[in-house]
Amino acid sequence: MRRDAAGLAALLTTTGVLHFVAPRPFDKIVPRSLPGSPRTWTYLSGVAELAVAAAVAHPRTRRAGGLAAAALFAAVFPANVKMAVDWRHAPPAQRAVAFGRLPLQAPLIAWAWRVSR
Q1: Could you write out the DSSP letters of every residue in 7-50?
Q2: Structure pTM?
Q3: Apex CA 30: angle with CA 57 and CA 27, to 5°?
Q4: Which of 27, 88, 89, 104 has the highest CB neighbour number within 10 Å of its CB?
């Protein structure tokens, strides 16, 4: 498997599994405007990450998987914005994490796009 695809699949698998193993931090960043329970959204996004990881890992579905990963990274951006807003008065280290996640989405989307090519 290509190294860039393997890395992206590993990242998505790790975060997807974390949605089930340790869901509380993900629950806290689900935007309030979404209907239903935050835990439902946490689990749904975990399933999406695992499905996209599987698509990226397989050569036949890699193009679609890379495009789906780019879309997924864009779709979770509002959760990162919510985290930054919620943590704006947190200690400096937590603020750095929260605000650091915002510009990280652009290289993640670019990585997924490269994998799809």
Answers
A1: HHHHHHHHHHHHHHHS-HHHHHTS-TTSSS-HHHHHHHHHHHHH
A2: 0.90
A3: 85
A4: 27
Q: How far is CA 57 from the centre of its chain?
A: 16
DSSP classification of residue 90: S
pLDDT for 12-66, tens place per residue?
999 999 999 999 999 999 999 999 999 999 999 999 999 999 999 999 999 999 9
Q: Residue 63 and residue 78: Cα distance in Å, rounded?
A: 25
Q: Evaluate whether 62 touches 5 at the Cβ level (below 8 Å).
A: yes
Question: If DSSP codes are grouped into helix, strand and coil, which group holds residue 61?
Answer: helix
Pair of tokens at residue 82? 């919510």
Distance (Å, whole) CA 28 – CA 76: 13
Report whether 112 contacts 8 (CB < 8 A). yes
